[in-house]
Amino acid sequence: MTTSQDTSQLTGHAGEIATAVARAHGVETMFTLSGAHVFPMYDGAVRSQQAAEQDGGRPVRLVDVRHEQTAAFAAEATGKLTRVPGLAVLTAGPGVTNGVSALAQARFAGSPMVVVGGRAPNNRWGTGALQEIDHLPIVGPVTKHAATLMSADDVAAGFDLAFTQARSSHRGPTYVDVPMDEFFNTGSGPMPAIGDYRGAEPDSDAVARIAGLVAAAQRPVLILGTDVWADRAEEAALRLVEEMRLPAITNGMGRGIVPGGHPLLVTKARGAAINGADLVVVVGTPLDFRLGYGVFGGTDGSEPAAVVHIADSPGQISGHASLAGSVAGDLTSVLDGLLEALAGARQPDRTAWLTLLQDTVAAASAKDAELLGAEADPIHPARIYGELVPRLADDAVVIGDGGDFVSFAGKFVEPRRPGCWLDPGPYGCLGAGLGAAIAARIARPSAQVALLLGDGAAGFSLMDVDTLVRHDLPVVMVMGNNSAWGLEKGPMQMLYGYDVAADLAPRTAYDQVVAALGGAGETVTDPREIGPALDRAFAANAPYLVNVITDVDAAYPRSTFGI
């Protein structure tokens, strides 16, 4: 029991207190790989069952994985999916350093998560204790906040600060560690007071100026990104799109805010939209390499589009792009403020612009249909999506972990609901998929979970199928197996006329690896067998890998290499 008679105070050993604070912030799952430095956190999770029985809340579930990177990626994905900070608990030294890539991914993607590290004991510090290292200089550059809590009495306030920082705009990862001897010690501290963590109210004059730019634009385009979802502004964004009839493109976890198939979703006309627009309004995503660094159009000698950048916090507003307007703050307030300002404004007739984009979408869809139904041998990777997309429910969670194969997913998979798409984000880290799949199955227990794997990416984390099996977490894994690092093979050939270090063993039976770990699967070499294999996978109620052998020469067409 971690609450004293005074319900505003927590008492117990430091692991109990830490877990109680996490639980107060809405954490329901602790992802970890067993390590003695953090045993008190495990005891805290066990004791949370008793606390849940007393207060009617939920206990903290303990999920142990096979590699710390998976625990950290699962926490990152939990933060994305639930918009409550995910929690990873990693033992000292290599346990923490194995989680750094996920911390960096979360920093770039704005994912709320807290990593708790073990730490060598204070009473042995400086004498060469097991895994003794100061983690803060390592994790500091990729976190919003990092701290060592030197005593058990520091834990309640220190953990509350970590969770508060993680879930406040602009969201991101935080880190805390506690010396091992203090983790086992008894302490006390305040029960956290949980707020709503809304961002600041936006500057009304800035909103009005942006509304004026939109009202005057002949050919506007709205781009909606991950932070629209993270800031719980998806309903406000759809209201603005529909009531003002603004064509929209979505990326990251912004996908699904304007449902797939919606007449105002023009992602399939992306080139025509951003090259033909006279105003591009970018909401909740950085003006990075994915968006041409904030330069739209102008390639044919015409004037580039005016650009507006809207973010959830001032630090996210682009400092390198030439902006016609910008505003930061709570995104629902910004978007509803724009809608209110535009409701009574005179605006030009944009019928021709919308018709052009919708016709471009229709033409692109017709062209896509040829690839989606391709009978090519070897299999064209697009055919996999031709079979998968019709089998996905509206609430299916789709996870991308790969290069070339997942690029096709970005082209062909248009979610019908927000919060249903997970990819690595701008950091581009492979190996996140199994952790994300574990998180998705726990966070969305009744939804389909489809993990899209490149055969290269699978090598980072496929062992954690064992975690799926042990914790009874059925996931459908769909692999595009072209026996190569396809994202590198083609560009290297283009640059040098040859490629090296780009080939993998041909036709590896990764489905047999999954079966050996307790799951199931099959290899597919005939395009006509992809659909039946997917049906068996979704019906299996087990971790199931459909290993589709694809054509290495059927590469995703690219206009940028991400630099």
TrEMBL record:
Record's GO cellular component terms: acetolactate synthase complex
Domain Thiamine pyrophosphate enzyme TPP-binding per the UniProt entry, residue ranges: 401-548
Source organism (scientific name): Nocardioides albidus
Name under which the protein is recorded: Acetolactate synthase
Uppermost EC category: transferase
InterPro entries associated with the record: DHS-like_NAD/FAD-binding_dom, THDP-binding, Thiamin_PyroP_enz_cen_dom, Thiamin_PyroP_enz_TPP-bd_dom, TPP_enz, TPP_enzyme_TPP-bd
UniProt cross-references to CDD domains, sorted A to Z: TPP_PYR_POX_like
Key word Transferase present: yes
GO BP: any one term: L-valine biosynthetic process
